Amino acid sequence: MIILSSMFLVSTRITKPKNYATFTSGPTLKQFILKAQVINFYREMMKTTKLIHNKNDKKELRKWIRQEFKIYKSETNTEKIKELLSRGKKEFKRISGLIMLSS
Q: Which residues form the Complex 1 LYR protein domain (predicted)?
């Protein structure tokens, strides 16, 4: 199609739209949500360590949290991740209770 515009000859082509939604791999919605839950849990644990006044205890607990998450960083089995998250939340609840008592 050719359009005459302000003394200039402008040529425009009509093309087919590109297919942008051709993802072949990547996380499913459930995996994406589970990953977000794990990240939020990690952040919650790290924020809770701010309540510890003793710097050495705080540093040690943060180091332990990082190590535990690093161990299972490459886990891909969603059932195993759910189990670890559940176990971690129970342990965190126990630890945070102790932190509240010591504060």
A: 37-93
CA-to-CA distance for 43 and 49, rounded, in angstroms? Answer: 10
Give 83's Cβ-side CA count (13 Å radius).
7
Question: CA-CA distance, 91 to 74, in Å (whole number)?
Answer: 21
> How far is Cα 39 from Cα 103, in angstroms, rounded to an integer?
26
Q: What is the pTM of this model?
A: 0.70
pLDDT digits (tens, 9 = 90+) for 36-58: 999 999 999 999 999 889 999 99
Tokens representing 52 are: 């510890």
φ, ψ of residue 81 in degrees (nearest 5): -65, -40
